[in-house]
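Q: Could you write out the predicted structure for this multi-component system? I'm mainly interested in how the pieces pack against one another.
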Amino acid sequence: NAGVTQTPKFQVLKTGQSMTLQCAQDMNHNSMYWYRQDPGMGLRLIYYSASEGTTDKGEVPNGYNVSRLNKREFSLRLESAAPSQTSVYFCASQARGALNGYTFGSGTRLTVV
Amino acid sequence: GQQLNQSPQSMFIQEGEDVSMNCTSSSIFNTWLWYKQDPGEGPVLLIALYKAGELTSNGRLTAQFGITRKDSFLNISASIPSDVGIYFCAGLNYGGSQGNLIFGKGTKLSVKP
């Protein structure tokens, strides 16, 4: 069981470039989430998808877009990367009605130069 | 929105010492969760608490769900080098407008052998 798989693990972008971070889960979970983690800031929610076909903004959505491609996959897109988007990005998923929180991927470390 | 205050922000301890960290909130939660993040990895669930006053252990870890439902603490006894990492508390409420899980900013634990 792979759980939550994120690709790539590392990425360096130039300012203005675009890219898509991929996330897939094989646990048949309904909800999926994208967080960014910065030193001293904890985990901040970017976007989430409560179920297939729906997406909603989190705390820090500006500069990002998401697609819930199907129940398994939830991608995060940076259309025009900025240095402020240098961060570690985590995808997470949650089963419907789960009382034990989220399952996280191992993260994508993104540097924008 | 809901916020969790987690303290301390960081701890430097000697191997063998006990560790205590806590989380407080101005809002009540139905469930409290504690996660650990190893360097370079995503957070992993350590302990989940479901009832006010509940005290739960997982090996050397003990966590409690506060009576008021607005706080929780995590204790680690006889710390070892592999306890190094970031510990996050999280409060879970269903039906929240920004996803279900609210995270504290984390406690970074360093253990000197």
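A: Regarding packing and overall arrangement: The two ends of chain B are 40 Å apart (CA to CA).
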